[in-house]
Description:
With 401 residues, this protein is of the alpha+beta class. The protein is built from 12 helices and 8 strands. The protein has 3 domains: 5-131, Orthogonal Bundle (Butyryl-Coa Dehydrogenase, subunit A, domain 1), CATH 1.10.540; 132-239, Butyryl-CoA Dehydrogenase, subunit A, domain 2 (Beta Barrel), CATH 2.40.110; 259-368, no CATH class.
Amino acid sequence: MTEPAEHAAYRAGVRAWYDANATPKRAEDPWAINVHADEAAARRHFEESRAWLGRLHEAGLVGIAWPAEYGGGGGEPWMSRIEREISRDYEEWTGFPGATLAMLGPTLLRHGTEDQKRRVLPELLSGRSTFCQLFSEPGAGSDLASLATRAERDGDEFVVNGQKVWNSAAQHCDRGFILVRTDPDAPKHRGITFLLVDMATPGIEVRPLVQINRSAHFNEVFLQDVRVPVANVVGEIDEGWGPARTVLSNESAFIAGARVPTRTKLTDLAGIGGRLGDPVIRQRLADYHARERVSGWMGEQVQQAVRRGEMPPMDPGLIKLMASENKRRAGDLAVELLGAEAQAGTDPRTRWAQNELMGRYSISIGGGTDEVLRNNIGERSLGLPREPGPDRSTPWRDLPR
Length: 401
Ligand SMILES: Cc1cc2nc3c(=O)[nH]c(=O)nc-3n(C[C@H](O)[C@H](O)[C@H](O)COP(=O)(O)OP(=O)(O)OC[C@H]3O[C@@H](n4cnc5c(N)ncnc54)[C@H](O)[C@@H]3O)c2cc1C
């Protein structure tokens, strides 16, 4: 199918900009992995991603279809699709700031006040402000609505006390979006408020959590008497569950869409090990190839709906679940293709395979665990009976914790 002339002209312009400003992917080490074992490297990577987002924004290549009055390009969703396709051929990427943009941007567009849209969206699009997600707590992960961080009203401010955990990149971000309990007497999904918070506010302490791979992707965030203006409420007071669900839905769509295709790398590994003629390996490579292509197309459909501000044609959790399953299969196959080398080797190829193997845990937990996504799909898409649990009208204060 030939592309309309207008699309082809736009594509040529975007391609020319990338050629002039970015590094083609083929120059990249094909087995490079994105793990930063020291804090300085992680910070550098974060700032490079932020700067790249800023350059894309200056060139009109971020928020292409968002309203111009909020810092977007006022363009068409097909333009965003073309930009996304082209960007995959280059090394530079928008990293964590791009991820929060994908989660928080549509949430502010849908639930934010006019003032928030005019002030915050341009900062988000240009990378001038980066936001971490402050949702999970030690006692509220899958059951996020049971969260206990309290916010009490004091004039034009809320005073926030509590603890968050697993907050990606919170040590690098200047701002955050947080869920707090404002009415403990309401049922748990009510009485939650969604706030924007400045991470430099007195009373916020961020403690990085170092993982088995020595990187500190997440943090614990402690909040003691943190004062947040009431003007920073997104949506309505006590009705923060709506914007929270918009974030979670966009997070699923983003995580699924951001998965870097690995099918060619797996085929390369099979070739290097002389296994391309092995009928069982061929079956598994073909199976993996099909799964990755199908989930990629499904992800694109969801992304297009998000860009148009429409309801996705399927539950984004479905694609996130497929991405998680694909990661598991890719890790298993990569390690099997390398054999014993996968256990002990330290060369870039082996480290890539080990990273695929280990990466299954983060993708199957972050943004909703596989089990919880299956529950959601069962209830929302298949109409299965709700999971047994406390009555949804029980006040949060009376729930067992
Ligand atoms: C890479 C990554 C990035 C993250 N980034 C952030 C972030 O930026 N901000 C943030 O706030 N949080 C973040 N998280 C936290 C994430 O949202 C939680 O880890 C997740 O929601 C699960 O919560 P939990 O860890 O408390 O596990 P739990 O909820 O305690 O679950 C433990 C186990 O029980 C299972 N389980 C729980 N409930 C059910 C059920 N009803 N039915 C069946 N099985 C169930 C789960 O599937 C899981 O296997 C991140 C996590 C990861 C891995």
